[in-house]
Every structure is written in C-alpha cells, then in structure tokens.
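Session log. Operator J.P. requested a structure for one protein chain; no other inputs attached. Running the standard single-chain path with token output.
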Amino acid sequence: MAQARGASSDRRKIVVAVVATVVVAAAVLGGVIWTISDKNKTEGQVIQPGTTTSSLASGVVQKRDGVVVTVGKPGAKATIDVYADFLCPICGQFEKAYKTQIEQAVNDGKLQVRYHMVPLLNDRSSPPGYSLDSANAALAAADAGKFVPFHDALFANQPEEGKRGYDKAQLIELGKNVGITDPEFAQTVNAGTYDQQLNSAFQQISNDPKLQQDFGGGQMGFGTPTVAANGSVVSWQDPDWLKKITG
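Structure written below.
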C-alpha cells in the first residue's frame, strides 16, 4: 500500500509539473504576442492630419531647396535652422513645446524656418528605414506645397523609436489626407527620389563643427533636435530662446 501511495504521489507531482509548464508557456507566448502587437501597432493605421494641420497666414511660402525646406514670409528678419528626425522622441517633444510659438512668429513675418530632415535614427525603427522614408516623403510634400501639414502630422502621430514606423503606402495616404493630388508625390515616395541627397547632407551635417554639441563628459557630437541661428547652435531648452532671436 505504501508503494502504491508513493506511485500515486509521484504521478500527481508529474501532472502538477506539466500543468505548471503549460501555464508558464502560455504566459510567455501571450507576452510574445503582446510584444509583437505593441511593436507593430502602427501597421494599418491611417495617419490623420486632423487638428494638426497648421494655419499658415497669407504670404507664407513653403519652398524646397535641395533637401532643405524653408517656411516663412520673404524678408523676415530672423532665420533659424531646425535639424530633426521624424523618429526622434526628443524632436517630438521640441515640436510639442514650440510648434505654436514658431508658427506664430512665421505668420507674423518675424521668422523664417529652414527645416533639415535628418535620417539619424534610420536603423532604429523595425524594420529599419523609417527616418529616411519619412524625410523623403516630407520633401515630396514640399514639392506639392504641403510640407507644413505633412511635417506636423508625422510628429503628432510619431511612432516609437525601436518599433515599426509608417510604410510608404501610409505616407502616401497621409499626403492625400493633407490635400496632395499630384501623382508625382506617390512616385517620389515609392522611388526614394531624395534618399541619396538626404544621406549625403546628413554626412555633411554630422561633421559640421558649428553643429557639434557637448553631450557631457567632454563628448562632442551632432544630435537631434538641433536648432541654429546666425551660425551658432541655440539652447532651445531656454524657454525664451525664440523671443531672443525674433526680438
């Protein structure tokens, strides 16, 4: 009898161990599925411009020159250069903090902004390539006269670094949603027309001594966002930086 009870006890231990293993495996599988779902949450999403569409005053010009887009009224007394990556989370914070002030200064004719789309984090999306694809699409939007609403929508709906960005079809759909009707826009996005120019400009920018910053511990380098005025980097963490530039 003792031997039988021992055998029965051993069987119960095996059953409990198997059940525990199944529960753990299910939990791990559930975690993997959730992680993949979270990582790919931008898949199939429509990038909505909605309230992010900016209201530019009459006389404000959006003009592409190479891989730089200038927005402002001709004759504005102040000009800033903004270097940003559409995947960069700090760039997203910069946009949220200063978008309204910058737009007001532009509409008032006090400021021109030269936007530089920098594919600094091109390998930090999954799959890689979103920084470059979005930069190229933004230049194509500038060709269609819709740079600002396209730019603002990408930051308002910014994907997370390390996760899936938006694919070219989604970027093309955003173009339609901000009013781009020229079929050349989609062709430019799909072909990566400005990719080589953007990469070449990035190499020059990242090695420009005027754009180097101290990231602590004596480590100098280029990062996004970077704001420059009159040939020098501006400390945009200062809440009054824009007022000091525009007077």
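Operator note: The CA atoms of residues 76 and 109 lie 5 Å apart.
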